[in-house]
Write a structure and sequence with these properties.
Largest sheet: 3 strands, mixed
Radius of gyration: 13 Å
Number of domains: 1
Mean pLDDT: 88
Shape: globular
Length: about 70
């Protein structure tokens, strides 16, 4: 999969914003990879660093790669 900051980074930022709005707690989040970035809400919350795609899979409850059926 080829990811870009210009396209996929915007989608990941939207996912983080929606998650943060539902979550409503202080946090620091650093997502790595081409679609990653850094976000923070409040002060003193937990800090996480993980791959941007892994974050999106985790909050969508998809922990494995999706493959097409033949």
């Amino acid at each position: 999969m080829h990811l870009t900051a210009d396209h996929d980074g915007v989608i990941v930022a939207d996912v983080v914003a929606e998650w943060a709005g539902r979550h409503r707690k202080d946090f620091e989040l650093t997502l790595t990879g081409p679609a990653g970035g850094a976000w923070k809400a409040g002060a003193g919350g937990p800090s996480w660093t993980l791959d941007a795609i892994d974050f999106c899979r985790a909050i969508s409850r998809r922990t494995a790669s999706i493959t097409s059926a033949s």
